[in-house]
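In response to reviewer comment 3 from the previous cycle, which asked for concrete evidence that the modeling workflow produces usable outputs, we include below a single protein chain processed end to end. The sequence was submitted unchanged, and the resulting structure tokens are shown without manual editing.
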Amino acid sequence: MNFLQILSNTAAQILAPATLGYVLAAIGLSVHFGFAGLLNMGVAGFMAIGAYGFAISILTFGLAWPVAALIGLIAAVVFALVMGIPTLRLRGDYLAIVTIAAAEVLRLLFLTSAFRNQTGSADGLSGFQAGFRASNPLPPGRWGFGPWTYQSDQWWVIIVGVIAIAIVVTLVWLLMRSPWGRVIRGIREDEDAVRSLGKNVFAFKMQALIVGGVIIAAGGIVTAMGTNVNPNVYVTSQTFYVWTALLLGGAATIFGPVLGAVLFWVVRAFLSNLLPALVNIGWLPFLTTEQSQMLVFVLVGAALMLLVIFRPQGILGSKKELTFVR
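The workflow returned the following structure tokens.
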């Protein structure tokens, strides 16, 4: 077992497009759940909307990649409105039911062969990154240092992703320090009290749902810039992964989702490399290589349960931020 190679492969995932996409998705979910108290269980749906909106705009309509990214974000706004209008006046658990169902409906729509020419059906979409890569200002080649050695196109995705994260973190920080953010926090704690002050609680909830949904969709777009789009990626387990990352870092914090997503993806990558290696050297004789990959999901689920039980506020969170869940 080459333990140094395992560590190198794990470290390389810190700047992977999937990790950056999860960071953005966790920040968006933090706006929903951590700050506004909205139970969004359809994170995968928002990520799929962003990714497919980006890819379809380029392949079907021939739009430039910045315009395609904007359309993916606008599609997330529409998706949030469709879900929020009938549910945000009701109890929070209705939103959870609607979002998880809507995400699955979206996945099946992208999977159906009726729209194969637009969505690619089960094969997904590929070849839409050509315009994005053509705009790469970096010199061609493979460069970097240690495990962070990537092709020029990969560095371009990383740069765009890091810039997007920096912009989103700054935006969320400014929003939560503003009067709007204080109203959102108040709604999370006691929406009846906020309503008694003359605030339109429904409107503020809708705004929070849209803002968080757009950020999550941006995560889907960044991920799509580095890989193909496939409906089998946007499943319910992806939503639970983002929730795990959020709870790990701290739901009602600014930098908690960033830390949580990076730690989650690094640990998952470490286990995905370590467990098959342990099987190959005979340290886990009761498992096959394929079964060891399934064990990763078991460990992630167990970690999520332990987080909720023993550290629900996350690494950077505080217990006072969780009074609204009681």
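The two ends are 47 Å apart (CA to CA). We consider this sufficient to address the reviewer's concern, and the full set will be provided in the supplementary archive.
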